[in-house]
Design a protein that fits this description.
By secondary structure, this protein is an alpha/beta fold. Helices cover 23% and strands 39% of the residues. The longest helix has 14 residues, at 37-50. It starts with a strand and ends with a strand.
Length: 182
């Protein structure tokens, strides 16, 4: 049986996203840009044009949006910071925030390495993600930035997700992925 998919246009590129059942009678399109250099470069070009130019740094959560944060960093001439999902032994003076993951129902921790705190404290930060579905990772990154003394000035993603067109209107996004209900 062929895999179900959803066709999207991303900055002039066409991609087939596999559909994945996340709950009975509910499917989402899975977007994974890791290794898709064409998509990363095209999205970075578009988002760089649409994001505020007065930012001091970008922040993203590991893992899938790291290549996009890097590409945006190059285009915008500002550094990027990774909010880690696990604390590594080499992270000295790390700060941590905890949020409830709506997707898993479990607490999720995000860590800011002590070496990166100077890139956030007193700085204007743009949050970057691949897909914003529930917003729990956004909440965590906002808390992490505020805890470190920074200010969130914009939030960006390749896609928002959901069937409410007004839910993510404050996000600078390339498009929206629907939730498929049977």
């Amino acid at each position: 049986m062929p895999e179900e998919s959803y066709t999207v246009q991303i900055c002039g590129l066409t991609r087939q996203l596999p559909l994945f059942e996340v709950a009975p009678h509910t499917k989402i399109a899975i977007f994974n840009m890791l290794g898709d250099t064409q998509v990363i470069e095209a999205v970075a070009d578009e988002l760089a044009r649409r994001l505020p130019r007065n930012a001091d740094a970008l922040m993203t959560a590991e893992v899938k949006s790291i290549p996009l944060a890097h590409a945006l960093s190059v285009r915008m001439g500002i550094p990027y910071v990774i909010a880690r999902k696990t604390r590594k032994p080499y992270m000295i003076g790390a700060q941590c925030v905890e949020v409830l993951s709506i997707t898993t129902g479990a607490p999720q921790k995000l860590w800011l390495d002590g070496k990166d705190q100077g890139l956030v404290q007193g700085k204007r930060i743009i949050i970057v993600d691949d897909v914003i579905s529930t917003g729990s990772t956004l909440v965590g990154m906002r808390k992490l930035i505020e805890t470190a003394g920074g200010e969130v000035i914009a939030e960006a993603a390749v896609f928002t997700e959901g069937n409410d067109p007004n839910k993510w209107q404050n996000i600078v996004a390339i498009g929206n992925l629907p939730v498929f209900l049977d």
